[in-house]
Amino acid sequence: MRRDLRAGGIAWRLMAALITAMPAAASADVQINRLSDMTFGALPTTGADQVQTESVCAASGLIGGLYSVTATGSGSGGLFTLANGSAALPYEVQWSATAGQSSGTNLTAGSALTGLTAALLNCTLGPNASLIVVIRGAQIVKATAGSYSGTLTIILSAN
Amino acid sequence: MFYSSSLLRRATMVIASGTLVASSAGAATQGTLGVNSTGTVSITASVAARAQITGLTDVTFAAVDPTVAASNAQSDCVWTNTLNRGYSITASGSGTASAFTLASSSSLTVPYTVQWAASTGQTSGTALTTGTAATGMTSLAANPTCSTAPSTTSSLVIGISSANLLTMTAATSYTGTLTLLITPQ
Q1: Distance (Å) from the alpha carbon of B115 to chain A's nearest alpha carbon
Q2: Whether A38 and B43 lie within 8 Å, measured CB to CB
Q3: How confident is the model over B79-103, as pLDDT tens digits?
Q4: Could you say which of B30, B41, B46 has the minimum Cβ distance to residue A41?
Q5: CATH number at residue B103
Q6: pLDDT of residue B2
Q7: Which of B165, B155, B154 is nearest to B61 (CA)?
Q8: Is residue B177 packed enough to be buried (19+ CB in 10 Å), middle (13-18) or exposed (0-12)?
């Protein structure tokens, strides 16, 4: 009887050891990495859209690599706008769950794009997603001359 | 006695007075591992000063009565993207030293006048001197070609005085080109 209890105690210890030995990446953690600043330079006033894209890392430890992405700009109410004093230049943000893309799904400021999947558990490997920013030619033509800047915040969530 | 003359004019689009260089607003930040992970990207761009004039039409004075001054007014579109939507206009003719003159095939010449107004539908405006910029103009154009309201923003007025008409030879064509240069301010 005493021997059985001892055996059960060993089993519990083994289970505890197994649980704590599971890698952290198997948790529901996510990570966004490999982001770079985007510099459009002098925008042409020909009416042509201007696009900048960068390959980034989006990692998810959730089962199936599920994650969602939410973007907010530095404009009023989180809008995707660049500022030049009181003048604003709107832009669009797209996301693709594949690296090296020049177009993707349009993001709405503050709204999560869900159902995305990542094959990466962490960002030690190469990029696996694309962040695309588009400044429409029609907006450039309407813009006041000057230098514009803004900050785009990207939030990855596990779901 | 009747004279005929025609005036050809040409639109000129003006290119930028300067390109503004974007300044960096900050460096990208990377997200860390967590239930949520947040990163930021700085975006910069610049828009150079630009201007454009459109909607110009050729001017013809046909068989005019030389005892009465001839005048032709037209409305056109000037667009600029500067903060105050300001611009200057410089006109130059095709005569000697860019004079505002029309010439016949036998080198007879007749001077004309050029006026500009920064509002549409005008029959008079600021008298322009060839090669000299008239400054302080502003435009309400919403886009480079005024494809949305207002469809016109300014007025060009070409005139030939009776005194000059009386110097012209009848049944002779006089032609010339007027160049308009719009510079954003």
Answers
A1: 28
A2: yes
A3: 999 999 999 999 999 999 999 999 9
A4: B46
A5: 2.60.40
A6: 36
A7: B165
A8: middle
